[in-house]
C-alpha cells in the first residue's frame, strides 16, 4: 500500500487521481489532500478517503474545513507553508503534483529534498526551473514520473530502451478549438469559445493554453528536462483526433508511438504503478471508430506562443520562467475578459524583451523573475486599451 500526497486534489487531475485510487484501493491511499479554495469539494473528498492531512490554501476557509472534519482523524491546516512542510512527511511515498502554475514549484522542491518520488502533472514547475528540479532529483535519487499524456506516452515508448539512442521525439497536439483559424479570427474569439476544447475536459488555465498552443510550448520545455533532450530533438505535430499521444524516433530510424482514447486516468495510473500495468475497465480504442488518423504541421505564425516557447528554450536561463509568468498573468486576464486572445502573445513577447535575462539563475532568481514578470505583465495589460489589442 503506497501513501500518496495529492497537491491540488480538487482540480481536474486531482479528482481523476482520486478516481484511479478508488479503483485501486488495495494499492494506494491518499495521505494528504490539498485545495486552493474549493473547501466544499475538499471536505467531500476528505470524508470519503479520510487522509491524514487536509490542507486548504485559503486561510479564510480553514474554519469551515476544520469544523466539517472535526469528527474524523484528519489534521486540517491552511496556507502554502503548511503544504511545503507536510509534503516532506516520512509516511508519504509519492507526491502527485496537480496544482496549477508556479505555485507547484516550492512544494515540489521540498518533496524532492525529502526523497519523495514525484508524479508530475504540474508542468509549470519543470518549465520554470527544469535544471534545478532535475539536478535535485538526481541528487536525492528521486524519480520524476510524467502524468502529462504526451510525456507519459514518450515514457511508455522508452520502457526498456536506451535513452541515448533517442534521435528525436514527436509530441502530438490536438490543435485546440481554433485549429486552422487565421489571426483575424483569433483577434475576436471569446473566453467561452476558447474554453471549449474538442477532445479533453481540463482546468481553465490549461484549456486556454491548449487553445493558444502555449500548452504545447510548455510541453516542449517539459520534455527537454524529463528526457534530457536538445530543442532540435523535439518536434510538434498536430493530430486532431488525440489518439496517438506522442512518438519516439530512435537512432536506427524506428518510431514507436503510444495510442489510446484521450483519458487522463491512464497516464495518471501509469505514473503511480509503472513499470507495472494494472488492469482497467476504461473504454478501449477501436480503429473502426477512427478510420482517419491525420497529422499536420503546427501553424506557428498564427499561434505565436509555440514559437516563443521554442525561443525561450533555446535562450535558456530564466527565459522559460519569464514566459511562464507572463502567460499565467495573460491567461488569468483573458479569463476575466480583461485582455484579448492575441494580446496574450504580445504580453509574453514584451516580457521576454524587457525582463532582465539571467543565464544561470538560482532558485532565488527564479522567485524574483516570477514576481518581476507578473508585475510587469499586469501593468502592461492595464495599459493596453482592450479594443486596440484585440
Ligand atoms: P485545475 O484548475 O482543474 O485544478 C488545479 C488544482 O490546483 C485545484 O485543486 C486548485 O484548488 C489548486 N490550485 C489552484 N491554484 C493554486 C495555488 N495558487 N496554490 C495551490 N493550489 C492551487 O487544473 P488541472 O487539474 O487541469 O491542471 C493541474 C496541473 O496539471 C496543471 O499544471 C496542468 O498544466 C497539468 N495538466 C493537466 C491536464 C488535465 O487534463 N487537466 C493534463 C496534463 C497536465 P481549488 O480547486 O481549490 O481552487
Ligand atoms: Mg499534455
From TrEMBL:
EC number of this enzyme: 1.1.1.267
Biological processes per GO annotation: isopentenyl diphosphate biosynthetic process, methylerythritol 4-phosphate pathway involved in terpenoid biosynthetic process
Sorted UniProt keywords: Isomerase, Isoprene biosynthesis, Magnesium, Manganese, Metal-binding, NADP, Oxidoreductase
Sequence positions that bind NADPH: 10-13, 38, 122, 124, 203
Alphabetical list of SUPFAM superfamilies matching this protein: 1-deoxy-D-xylulose-5-phosphate reductoisomerase, C-terminal domain, Glyceraldehyde-3-phosphate dehydrogenase-like, C-terminal domain, NAD(P)-binding Rossmann-fold domains
Keyword Isomerase: yes
GO molecular function (one): 1-deoxy-D-xylulose-5-phosphate reductoisomerase activity
Role this protein plays: Catalyzes the NADPH-dependent rearrangement and reduction of 1-deoxy-D-xylulose-5-phosphate (DXP) to 2-C-methyl-D-erythritol 4-phosphate (MEP).
NCBIfam families membership: Dxr, PRK12464.1
Assigned protein family: Belongs to the DXR family.
UniProt protein name: 1-deoxy-D-xylulose 5-phosphate reductoisomerase
Native organism taxonomy: Bacteria, Pseudomonadati, Bacteroidota, Sphingobacteriia, Sphingobacteriales
